[in-house]
Design the sequence.
C-alpha cells in the first residue's frame, strides 16, 4: 500500500469528494466550533483529503464560511418551497406544515441554528450577511402568513418576530443542541423518546393553538 505525501493534494480528491459532501462537513465544523475555532486542516482530516483541496475550491476560510452558509440555507429554502406546494390551499394548514418541516430540517442540520447563535452573539459582517440574506426574509415570509390569517380572523397575531424566536431559538434549540436535549430527556425518566416528527408536531400545535381566537 502506498501512502500519499502529507500536504499534497491527492489526484482523486476532486472526484471522490463532491462540493455537497465537503460543504456539509464544513457546516458541521463551523456549527460545532465557531468561525475562529474551525480549522480548514481539521475539516480536511475529517474527510481524509488534502487540506489544500479546500482552499483550491473555495479560497480563504472566510470565503468558505459564506459558501457553506449559502449552501446550507439554500437547501433549507428549497425544501420549504417544495413542502409548501404539497400542503394544499388552506393557509393555516400550510403554516402548520411548514413550521413542522422547519423544525425537522433543523434537526437534520443543527449547524444552521448553531451558526446563527454564534454569530448573533458577536455581531459583525458575517451576522449582517446572515440577517439580511436569510433571517429577515424567513421572518418576513412567516409574518406574511400571520398577517393573512389574522385578517381572516383565524388567529391572534403575535408581536413581530416572536414566532421566529419561538420556533428557531426556542423549540429549535432542542434540535440544535441534541446532547442537552438527550440529557434532559434522560433526567426526566422518559421511557421512550418521541420521534423528531412527533416532537415537532407537538411544538407547533402548542404554539398555533395559543394563537387561536379566544
Sequence:
Amino acid at each position: 500500500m502506498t501512502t500519499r505525501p502529507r500536504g499534497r493534494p491527492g489526484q482523486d480528491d476532486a472526484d471522490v469528494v463532491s462540493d455537497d459532501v465537503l460543504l456539509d462537513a464544513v457546516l458541521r465544523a463551523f456549527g460545532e466550533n465557531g468561525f475562529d475555532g474551525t480549522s480548514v486542516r481539521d475539516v480536511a482530516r475529517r474527510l481524509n483529503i488534502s487540506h489544500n483541496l479546500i482552499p483550491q475550491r473555495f479560497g480563504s476560510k472566510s470565503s468558505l464560511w459564506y459558501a457553506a452558509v449559502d449552501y446550507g440555507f439554500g437547501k433549507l429554502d428549497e425544501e420549504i418551497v417544495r413542502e409548501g406546494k404539497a400542503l394544499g390551499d388552506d393557509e393555516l394548514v400550510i403554516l402548520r406544515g411548514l413550521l413542522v418541516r422547519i423544525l425537522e430540517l433543523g434537526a437534520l442540520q443543527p449547524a444552521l441554528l448553531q451558526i446563527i447563535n454564534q454569530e448573533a452573539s458577536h455581531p459583525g459582517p458575517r451576522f449582517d450577511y446572515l440577517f439580511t440574506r436569510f433571517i429577515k426574509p424567513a421572518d418576513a415570509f412567516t409574518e406574511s402568513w400571520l398577517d393573512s390569517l389574522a385578517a381572516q380572523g383565524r388567529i391572534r397575531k403575535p408581536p413581530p418576530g416572536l414566532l421566529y424566536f419561538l420556533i428557531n431559538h426556542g423549540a429549535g434549540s432542542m434540535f440544535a443542541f441534541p446532547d442537552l436535549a438527550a440529557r434532559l430527556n434522560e433526567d426526566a425518566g422518559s421511557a421512550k423518546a418521541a420521534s423528531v416528527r412527533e416532537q415537532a408536531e407537538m411544538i407547533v400545535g402548542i404554539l398555533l393553538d395559543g394563537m387561536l381566537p379566544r
